[in-house]
Amino acid sequence: MDGSASATRTPNDPQALLQALYAEMRPHSLYPLWEVLASLVTPSPRSAARPHRWSYAPARDYLLRAGDLISAEQAERRVLILENPGLAGSSAVVPSLYAGLQLILPGEVAPCHRHTQCALRFVMEGDNAFTAVDGEKAVMRPFDLVLTPNWQWHDHGNASGAPMIWLDGLDIPTVRFYEASFAERLHEPAHSETIPSGDSMRRYGRNLRPMRGTAADRRPAHQPLFHYPYAEWRESLLALAAAEAPDPHLGHAMEFLNPADGGPVMPTIAAHVRHLPAGFETRPRQATDGTVLVVVEGHGTARVGEAEYRLEERDLLVVPSWQSLTLAAGSRMVLFGYSDRAAQEKLGLFREARL
Ligand code: GTQ
Asked: Has this prediction a pTM greater than 0.85?
């Protein structure tokens, strides 16, 4: 009876009546949940983002060509966006995060501004350029991590004789999601240098801080440190690698910490480094944080879901939420990564599966 009823729908047929109801409701911005529930509340994450690898050399060539055509001053920030091929038009590398490659040529200044977005810089090449954060310069060396936490003034400059390129990691799509973007330009191109370079590292980067009773010291108390030099993180990572066997799913891995609270470096973004001994292959692991990885040293392969990528020095890889990742090191490999894990942990959302 049911079959014949659906074959010959009458105006009293429940399906036809439902469709008519939907059509009537639509102009009032009302929709039936039961038609979309399964795609809204999925049994496991379904990311529109796709795994992708950017080889460094061709990206660098395009960036240097842009450098011939537009100045850092004109562009405000001369950056090539690493947009996820599954998220066209979004300027996002995963739905919550942004990635870009920024170029500063000798003598240039990227003018001073501040915004509610948090940013990290990971130096890809060049030496002795700087990011100034609230009037204090961090002198940037290859593979240093430099933060510009939200609402702190920052400008970038290059007093060296060579191009400087770094990876920008920002929470632009997260701030867009919350509709909480504010930004302003300083009236001068560069903030005056009010604090000697390296001051905050010496104050806060050594498990110390000035004693002021209940009064705050000069940096924001919740975000005192903004420079994590390669020379320091590399020494710690290699010491860990010498001291213990690699974790089967991660290799040797260390997270960058905010010394104020022992948590991730910024409220929305976590960052870490990994070491894989030559010949080591990780077991597959899934995690809900969308992650961007950079090859600092060595070569190998990455399997992300069904896709496989060869990785060379300075290549960039995006691993969207819940895609299983396996890394195999052809030589000793060192990687840097950042992800939205910091935000997900606060929201009680972060999960991983070790396969
Ligand atoms: O250096 O402040 O790649 O504001 C995108 C937005 C870099 C920056 C980006 C930014 C910056």
From this structure: yes
